[in-house]
Write a structure and sequence with these properties.
The structure is a single chain. The protein is α/β, with parallel strands linked by helices. Strands 1, 4, 5, 6, 7, 8, 9 and 10 form an eight-stranded mixed beta sheet that branches. It has a two-stranded antiparallel ribbon with strand order 2-3. A hairpin with a 4-residue loop joins strand 8 and strand 9.
Length: 284
């Protein structure tokens, strides 16, 4: 796709912190020197700067907004704006505050891209791939990136990431997704609960697998045939998009990004060392 056809997207970089420190942060920062893992030193930079650099170099990225840090705490090389919001606020509140901030600045985006701050393997080429894919389908409400499990396992054996097992794709969540303003406004309660379940999965990973998400989805009777097929290993990813979209009244698109760095963040003890070795090797 020609970049002239794509209007730049605003990006929210989520760089707050959990109300309760995770085991990984206790291990990496036992003295509690860093407010957020975004600020951890990583190969000569702050952890967040790796992701900011990849985003800032994309012609499809407009303004970058940091949610959870202040200018007094962090001064990046990249041009960013700081959105005033409590670092430990629920993600749905952060989205709403961020959207209000955008609109107060005169912006009315079709989609807002959401980025984590702790995936230093994210590269500009894959950012472009994701944004080109969503630009090719106007009118989406929710777009998510997914990384094939075999790609992840080749680079990070036994990574502990939770896998969505469809008949045609076995995938893990990638590090970018996008929401329409309509989705942020109308589905705030859904986003809040999904995030709580996502956090639980991140804490416990393979021990509980996809169960919290599947239990949530099962509240919608329209999803029951899909869940039955999923349980039997017969559901396709496209069926998942279509059925969940109908159940939650939104248009959903999954974008496959076959790059391990796009799916590996820092959630578990040992992830820091794994990513340090991965990034160091990729630079040689």
């Amino acid at each position: 796709m020609s970049q002239e056809k794509v209007s730049p997207y605003p990006v929210f970089v989520m760089c707050g912190r959990d109300a309760t420190r995770r085991k990984m942060m206790i291990a990496l920062d036992p003295e509690g020197r860093y407010k957020s893992k975004a600020l951890l030193p990583f190969l000569g930079k702050r952890l967040i700067e790796w992701q900011l650099s990849a985003l800032a170099q994309s012609p499809y990225v407009g303004k970058i907004y940091l949610l959870g840090l202040t200018a007094e705490e962090f001064t990046p090389e990249q041009a960013v704006e700081f959105v005033p919001v409590d670092a430990t606020a629920d993600v749905s509140e952060k989205f709403s505050v961020g959207l209000d901030y955008l609109e107060s600045q005169g912006e009315s985006p079709e989609m807002v891209v959401i980025s984590s701050c702790d995936a230093p393997g994210v590269r500009t080429a894959q950012v472009n791939q994701f944004l080109e894919a969503i630009a090719a389908q106007p009118g989406l409400d929710f777009a998510l990136s997914l990384v094939p499990e075999d790609v992840m396992e080749a680079a990070f054996p036994g990574s502990g990431r939770v896998v969505g097992r469809f008949s045609d794709q076995q995938v893990i969540p990638g590090e970018l997704y996008a929401l329409s303003p309509r989705m942020i406004r109308m589905q705030r309660a859904v986003i809040a609960e999904l995030n709580q379940r996502r956090l639980r999965i991140n804490r416990e990973k393979r021990r509980i697998g996809m169960a919290p998400m599947l239990n949530f989805i099962a509240r919608k009777p329209k999803t029951w045939p899909l869940l039955a097929k999923y349980g039997l290993g017969l559901a396709t990813l496209t069926e998942g998009e279509r059925t969940l979209g109908a159940a939650f009244d939104c248009r959903i698109k999954a974008v496959i990004i076959p790059d391990a760095g796009f799916g590996m963040d820092m959630d578990l003890p040992g992830d820091y060392e794994r990513l340090e070795a991965f990034i160091a090797q990729s630079q040689t």
